[in-house]
Amino acid sequence: xxxxxxxxxxxxxxxxxxxxxxxxxxxxxxxxxxxxxxxxxxxxxxxxxxxxxxxxxxxxxxxxxxxxxxxxxxxxxxxxxxxxxxxxxxxxxxxxxxxxxxxxxxxxxxxxxxxxxxxxxxxxxxxxxxxxxxxxxxxxxxxxxxxxxxxxxxxxxxxxxxxxxxxxxxxxxxxxxxxxxxxxxxxxxxxxxxxxxxxxxxxxxxxxxxxxxxxxxx
Amino acid sequence: xxxxxxxxxxxxxxxxxxxxxxxxxxxxxxxxxxxxxxxxxxxxxxxxxxxxxxxxxxxxxxxxxxxxxxxxxxxxxxxxxxxxxxxxxxxxxxxxxxxxxxxxxxxxxxxxxxxxxxxxxxxxxxxxxxxxxxxxxxxxxxxxxxxxxxxxxxxxxxxxxxxxxxxxxxxxxxxxxxxxxxxxxxxxxxxxxxxxxxxxxxxxxxxxxxxxxxxxxxxxxxxxxxxxxxxxxxxxxxxxxxxxxxxxxxxxxxxxxxxxxxxxxxxxxxxxxxxxxxxxxxxxxxxxxxxxxxxxxxxxxxxxxxxx
Lengths: 218, 308
Known about the structure:
Number of strands of chain A: 0
Helix content of chain A: over 70%
Number of domains of chain B: 2
Oligomer: heterodimer
Largest sheet of chain B: none
Mean pLDDT of chain B: 90
Largest sheet of chain A: none
Pfam family, one (chain B): DUF979
Largest interface: A-B, 113 and 143 residues
Order of helices and strands of chain B: HHHHHHHHHHHHH
InterPro entries (chain B): DUF979
Number of helices of chain A: 11
Keywords (chain B): Membrane, Transmembrane, Transmembrane helix
Radius of gyration of chain B: 23 Å
Low-confidence stretches of chain A: none
Mean pLDDT of chain A: 90
Number of helices of chain B: 13
Strand content of chain B: under 5%
Transmembrane segments (chain B): 50-68, 88-110, 122-141, 162-193, 199-232, 244-264, 284-306
Number of domains of chain A: 2
Radius of gyration of chain A: 22 Å
Organism (chain B): Glacieibacterium frigidum
Distance between the termini of chain A: 53 Å
Shape of chain A: globular
């Protein structure tokens, strides 16, 4: 049971708003000690995993490109473009992005967009520009719009990707069931991701259009 | 053949350049942090497990001590940017589309070419797209040679320590696995479900997937644990449910949990820093009223579809 101490550390650490890197390191130490591992073995286990997971941080190589284009006025151009489209609202814009993300993710194309690649340089400034036309004029309101742009990216990917048969989560399910003596083809699984994908489009899309209504009333 | 090692080298050189350019800023914490990341990307395979562990301890110490600050390399003013945007027009979108387009085309067409490691084709194509986009933009705009590195440094320093949080959390998952955390949680959940209620078992599975995903930050880590503890013995073997429906919707219930937790840092915390949100949990707040209804819908779908 002592191995669960790491979970308690995580929950407490995030609740107390301590530095998350510190929380994660302490949680790893507590978990390892609770399971009877020697401190140096814990450090080595963590170090090996850190090295094996470097691909997680590889996405930062897009920053020089994004920064160079921002320096040249990409965000401003994105705002101008939306300003020129009649009838563009923040809700409709993000709904279109949601559909784009769900459809491309269902085709397995996940890394073609993302928070660093598309949300910060393009989607979020466009959403802000549209929202400003709808009467959002304070910083807190603009931050909420940016947060919704990031949320829309997440929802689109999460509830689109499992329709693709070769995505990691589907392959994990196939492998797990196979190890337990149940043979299932990836396609049999991925069709059952479709009802939830439609529900996600309706729920999140509905919230986006509701956002437009709320802004109109202000 | 191009492998992931080439992309790591690119990332390592980038962080090394950030460290060198930061030397003049008087922010030693940032310099050390970037130098350590450069070392990890360039020579991580040579450091050994303990060496990599020591590197992580140093990164954590820097972040925990608050040694990382925002930096402000010289950049263009708002007016210059607006003038450029007006002058260059929509052509400015083209270089921004090179990265996603290369990732897309590479994934589709380079997989069986023999030029690229087929297992890592998307990440390598992404790196290739970065190089192409930089070359095209520099040739077109004739920006100062150091501009991409200075701008990249400005952005990475805005993200700060959060830039390694996703990798740290993935590594924590490995320690959890080595300590057998999953089996303990699974046994606990399996013990509290009342006997004989199909609905209670479905709710325990979808809710358990969401909750354990929130703790682990990752539905992949939660899935084998919860499925072995609840879905296999009760829903599939006990009530005779369709394993395809149960597992597919179970995984998606986990994704609802991903939307609700700071532990899923790359989806929730990193964008909050990238988009300059004052509230670190601002993205999670925006997702709550999508995630909770969807979790309820997933539960209803599983209950209605799995036991026909």
